[in-house]
Amino acid sequence: MRIHVPCPGGSVTALGCILLLASCEAGPLSSPAAKGGVAAATVVTAAPFTFANFELGATPGTVCPDSSACTNGAAEPAIRADATGTFYVSSELGLSAGTLAWTSTDGGLHYTALTSPNQVSQSFGGVGPGGGDTDLSTAPQPNASGIHNLYVASLSLANVTVSTSQDGGTTWTKNVTSATIPLDDREWIAADQATKVCLSYHDIATFNIDVNCSFDAGATFTQVGSAIDAAHAFLIDDNEIGNLTIDPNNHVIYQVFSGIANATEVVGSAFHAVWIAVSRDGGQTFTDNPVYVNPHNTASYGHQFVNVSVDRAGTVYVVYTDDHNLFYSFSTDGGGTWTGPIQVNQAPSATAIMPWSVACNPGQLNIVWYGTSFYDGTTAPDNYPASAAWYVFFAQNLNAAAAGSTFTQAAATPIIHYGGVCESGVGCTGNRDLYDDFGVAVSPTTGLASIVYSDDQPGNVGRDDHTAIATQTAGPKICGP
Asked: What is the pLDDT of residues 346-397, one digit of tens each?
C-alpha cells in the first residue's frame, strides 16, 4: 500500500495543490506504509510533480526502501549525480564519528548503503576521521577505468578529511589532512576533469576562505589559493561561506559567500551583501564580485547557506535567503554582472530557509528549501511555535536565465519537522534537528531530481533524526535527453 496526496480531479494548479498540502499542517501529511512490517516509500503528489519518500539504511549493503533495515541516525546530507546518472549521497554522524554514504543506479528509486568513506579507515597520528559538515562531488570525466571518481569531504575541526573512491564507492582511500591550513570549519568540495578536485573552507585562525586543489584525485592538495582578493580583505573576518562549484566546460571556479558590503561597515554588521569569488586560472587567484547588495543593512543573507550552480551554457545562478523569502540572481557573463534578486518561494511557503540548487540544460534550474506557512514578521525561525510545520519545497524554472520567468512549486515531502529551526551551527541553543543544509541533484540520463534531507518525524526531539530521500517519479524534467 502506498499513500498518495493527489490534487482533486488532477486539474488543480501546482500552487492550488500545495495549498491542499498546507491544510494538513495540524498533523502529519502521511506516514510510511507498513508492508509486512517493512516501511515502503511514501508517495507525495503535488501536480505536476510526484515524489517517492523513504528513509535510508545505515548498514552497508542495505537497499532502501522496502527493508526493515532502512533506518539511520545521520543528518545534514549532501547529494550529487555523475555523468552516467548514478546518484551518490553522504550524511554526517558527527565529528570523529564518521560519515554514511549511499548510491543509486536506478534513477533514485532505490539507494544502497556503502561502506563508510572514513569511519572504518585508519587514523593517522591520532587525527580524527572526520564526520562533520559533509560534502561530496563527482568527477565530470571518467578515470582510466571508465568510472567517475567520487570524493567525500568531512570535517574533524583539526583538519578536513577527503575520501576518494575510484570504483563507484566500493573502496576508499583517505587523506585526513587535506586542508593546507589546519583547524578548519565548513568545507566544500568540487571536482573537475578526471582527477582534479578542489576544497574550500574557513581557517579558524583568520576566517579567510581558503581554496586548495589536488591534481592526483585527492591524495595531495598542493595548490593554495584565497577566495577573498586583496581589494576585499575587509571580508576576511566578516563572511559566511557558501559552496564551491566548477564549470566543467571552461574550468572556471566559483566560490559564493555572504558578508558585509564595504570596508566602512563595522565588524559584526549584518551580512547584507552576497559575493562571488571567480577564478579563471584554476584556483590560483580569485576576483570578488558583488552578486547583490541590499541597500538596507539590517537585511542579512548570512544564513546556512548561500548557494551557487552553473548550467551547461555557463550561466551562473546564486540562491540566498533573508530568513523569510528566497531569492536568486543569475549571470550570463561568468559572474561579472548579475540580474536579480528575483523571489522564488510562493505561498504557502511564507518562510524559506537553507536553499540548494542544481542547474542543467541552458536556463533549467531546480531549487529546494525547508519551508513553512508560518511567518509573523518578528519571530526568528529559531523561535517558531510548535505549530509551525516544515516541508521540503521544490521549485523548477525552465527559463531561469530570463528575467520575469516563473517557477513551478510543490512540496516534495510529508511534514519533516515542527517548531523552531536553529541556524547558528554549533552555537545553537534551540532545536537543531534539521542542522544546517541539505541538497538536490538531477540525473542527466532521466532528467528527474533526487532530494536528500533531514527528517525528525515522528518527533522525539533529538532521537528521531535521520536522513531521507525524495525522488521525483513524475512531472517536468530538466537535464534529461
From this structure: 999 999 999 999 999 999 999 999 999 999 999 999 999 999 999 999 999 9
Greatest alpha-carbon span in the chain: 65
Give the model's pLDDT for residue 151. 97
Grid coordinates in use for 364? 533549467
How distant, in Å, are the alpha carbons of 60, 154, 203, 240, 414 from that of 70?
Answer: 11, 23, 37, 35, 18
Give pLDDT tens digits for 408-448.
999 999 999 999 999 988 778 778 999 999 999 999 999 99
Burial 23-39 (b: 16+ CB within 10 A, else e): eebeebbbebeeeeeeb
Cβ–Cβ under 8 Å, residues 412 and 394: yes
C-alpha cell at 439: 541538497
> What's the pTM value of the predicted model, to 2 decimals?
0.91
Distance from chain centroid for Cα 404: 26
196: its cell numbers: 582534479
CB atoms within 10 A of CB 284: 14
